Amino acid sequence: MAATGPFFIGVAGGTASGKTTVCEMIMSQLGMNDIDHKERKVVILHQDSFYKVLTREQSEDAAREAYNFDHPDAFDYELIVSTLDKLTSGQPAEIPIYNFKTHSREKETILLDKPDVVLFEGILVLYSEQLRKLLHMKLFVDTDADTRLSRRVLRDIAERNRQVESVLRQYLAFVKPAFDEYILPTKKYADVIIPRGADNLVAINLISQHIKKIVNTPASKRSYASAQASHLPSDISASSSGLELKRSVSKDKSEAVRPH
Ligand SMILES: Nc1ncnc2c1ncn2[C@@H]1O[C@H](COP(=O)(O)OP(=O)(O)O)[C@@H](O)[C@H]1O
Ligand SMILES: Nc1ccn([C@@H]2O[C@H](COP(=O)(O)O)[C@@H](O)[C@H]2O)c(=O)n1
């Protein structure tokens, strides 16, 4: 039977593991960055867009670094599922825009209308069973903790209006414990694990090829069988925790297609 709605790819992993960068590299491989936003058939959706709206008390907690943004309860899974359901039934969906500086949603939203492929990235996109059932392919970006922490510190200071001390306090109080308790255990649900994130060009090329096939198949002929060992290229093999890419990656950064 032909598939309906977009092909949903969940991209999970710890904070600053490179989820967004991996998605941007896939977009670049697909030539999407040269196309106007509204015309793009492959889009990136961020789980951050679905952080719950905070009560006044929770906002005060967030301001004094006492709110846990890494706990599953911080996300509005109902809104996530209803958004994906809408897209599946061919309806457009309004996506909230999240502001990390104010810990709140902007007034504006982004309209997503009939995308072919949705790359849905976020720390806990593989956490909810209901959500996992809507994903046609599940990826886990596996980057070591010290690399992630260093990147997080630099990014949060540069882009999220944070100070080094507050990033480190938040990391110790909430980010690391939640990674161990809620995020890392979801790795077992991944179809493909991407070691080293955006440095792993082999993985990114393979995944991009898979997506290209989907985009180039007319909607009426698409079938969304989940990734299975027999359907995947030969340098991906089954392991106890999903499918792992076995070949090592060229260290030559000049091959990279990282957008800047
Ligand atoms: N392979 C990489 N090499 C160097 N810097 C990277 C790499 N991957 C990601 N980064 C940087 O690390 C930070 C976090 O990456 P990002 O993709 O936003 O992670 P996530 O979406 O998992 O939080 C960003 O500043 C990004 O530019
Ligand atoms: N107001 C907020 C909301 C979230 N965070 C942190 O963001 C992390 C998730 O985003 P990534 O891009 O790193 O995947 C998560 O670890 C939260 O701690 C925040 O600091 N402030």
TrEMBL record:
Q: Which InterPro entries match?
A: P-loop_NTPase, PRK/URK, Uridine_kinase-like
Please list the residue ranges that the record marks as compositionally biased, kind Polar residues.
232-242
| Record keywords | ATP-binding, Kinase, Nucleotide-binding, Transferase
Q: In which pathway does it act?
A: Pyrimidine metabolism; CTP biosynthesis via salvage pathway; CTP from cytidine: step 1/3; Pyrimidine metabolism; UMP biosynthesis via salvage pathway; UMP from uridine: step 1/1
> Which molecular function term from Gene Ontology is one that the record holds?
cytidine kinase activity
Question: Does the UniProt entry include the keyword Nucleotide-binding?
Answer: yes
Ranges of Basic and acidic residues composition bias in the record: 244-260
Q: Which GO terms describe its biological process?
A: CTP salvage; UMP salvage
The organism's place on the tree of life at top rank:
Eukaryota
Q: Which residues form the Phosphoribulokinase/uridine kinase domain?
A: 8-203
Give me the ranges of the annotated region Disordered: 232-260
For this protein, what is the EC number? 2.7.1.48
Q: Which reaction does it catalyse?
A: cytidine + ATP = CMP + ADP + H(+); uridine + ATP = UMP + ADP + H(+)
Task: Give the UniProt family note.
Answer: Belongs to the uridine kinase family.
Q: Which NCBIfam families match?
A: PRK05480.1 (NF004018), udk (TIGR00235)
Quote the PANTHER family the UniProt record gives: URIDINE KINASE
This one is known as Uridine kinase
Taxonomic placement = Eukaryota, Filasterea, Capsaspora
